[in-house]
Amino acid sequence: MLCRLTKAASGVCRHYPVTAKIVVEALVDSVPVCTIEMSAPAPEPSPFAGGLLRRGMGLLGLRRNVAVLLGMLILAGMGEKLYQRFLPKYLVALGGGPLAVGLFGFLDNALGALYALPGGRLTDRLGHRRALILFASMNLIGCALLALPYWPTVLVAMLFCSAWSQLSLPATFSLVAAELPPTKRVMGLAVQAIIRRVPMALGPVAGGAIFHIVGIRAGMLWAVAAAAILTLAAVLLQAWLSRPESKPENLAPQPGISALWRSFCPQLRLMLLSDIFIRFCEQIPNAFVILWVTERLGRSDFEFGLLTAIEMATAAALYVPVALWADSRVRAAQGTSAVAAVMERRPFVIATFMFFTAFPVALYYAAGWWSLVAAFVVRGLKEFGEPTRKAMIVDLAGDGVKASTVGLYYMIRDLTVSVAALAGYRLWVVSPDLNLWSAFACGVTGTIMYWVLSRRV
After folding, report:
1. R_g (Cα) of the chain, nearest Å
2. Which residues of 143-172 are buried (b: 16+ CB within 10 A; e: fewer)?
3. CATH code at 203?
4. pTM over 0.85
C-alpha cells in the first residue's frame, strides 16, 4: 500500500515542496486507525411549537444551539460584509497608497490560514458558547479601530475584524458535530452554507448604498457603527438563547501540532492531500477569471455579475436536496461499521472534486454567452459535495479535539495553497491558456488521488 501511494503521490508533488513534505509525512509517520463515534447526541426538547414547524426544523437539523448559531452568522456576517469590500478604497482615501492595499490583501489571506488552528484550540478549551462569544466580541474591537482615520490602524484592525469569520470556522463545524447525529450533519453544514450567503449577498449592497450617499470616509463611520450594533446583537443572542454546555469538551492539556497531526487517521490525511490539489485547481485561475471573461471574451462587468449570480444560485439550489441524499446514505449504512457509514459520503466528495476540475476547461472552451452560462453553472456545481466533505472532516476527527483538528486541517491546506495566487500570476504572464490548463492538471491529480486511494486506506 505504501509503495502504491508513494508512486502515485511523488509524481504530482514534484513542483510543490510544501505539499510534498506533507505527502512524505503522511506516508512515513505511523497513523492511527479511524475510530468514529456514530451515536447521536442526546435528544433535546424542541423549543418550537407546532407539528409542521417542528418537522421542518428537524428536517433541516435546526436544534436550538444550531439555530442560535445561524442567527449569529447572519448578524455578525452582515456587519462584517457592510464594510469589508470597501476597505481597500478606504485605505487609499486615508493616504495609504498601493503598499497599504497590498498589505491589506496579504493580511486578509494570511489570517484566514493562521487563525484556523487557534480558533479550534480555543473552542476545544472554552466550549462552543464561550468561544463564539469571544470571537464575536473581538470584532467589536476591530470596529472601534476602523473608526480611527489612520490607515495603519486599519491594518491593525484586521487582526480583530478577521476574528469572527476566521477564528469561528472550526467552532461552527464542531458545534454541528456536537449537536447533530451523523445522519443530520451534512444538512446542518448545508444550511450553514446557505445562511452564510445571505450577508454575502445583502451586506455589500447595503454598505455600497451608505458609501454612495455620504462618501467613503464618513460612510465608514456609519458602516462600522452599524456593524458594531449587529455584532453586539449576535453576542447577546448567543449569551441569552443558547443552551449552556455542561463543560468544555476537553479539560486535558491540548496536544501539540505534531501530536495533533499524528492523530489524523489515513482517510483524513488523504482527504487533506487531495483537497490541496483541488484548491490549487481553484485558486490558480481564481483572480484571473474576470480578466478572461471581460478582456479575452469581451463581456461587460454587468454580464460578469450576472454569471456570478448564476453560479451562486446554482450552489444555493444544491445544498438542501444533496444534503438529504447524503444523510440518507449514512442512515442506510448505520448497520455496518462506523467507518463504512462515513465513507458512504465518498461519492459526493468525488463529484465535487470533478466539478472543481471541470471549470477551467469549461471556461477555456466557452465562446458565446450560453457556453459561459454553462461554465458558471459548472462552477456553482462545485458546491455539490462541499457540506459532505466538511461533515467527513468532523466525523473523522478525534473526540475532544474536533475543533482543533478542523483548525489544523484548514491551516495546512490554506497555508500550502496560499502560493497558488502567485503561481497563477506567473502562469498567466506566460500564457492565459497555460493558467487554465495547469489548474485543470492539479484538479485531475487531486480527483484521481482521492478516487483511487480512498478505497484502499
Report:
1. 22
2. bebbeeeebeebbbbbebbbbbbbbbbbbb
3. 1.20.1250.20
4. no
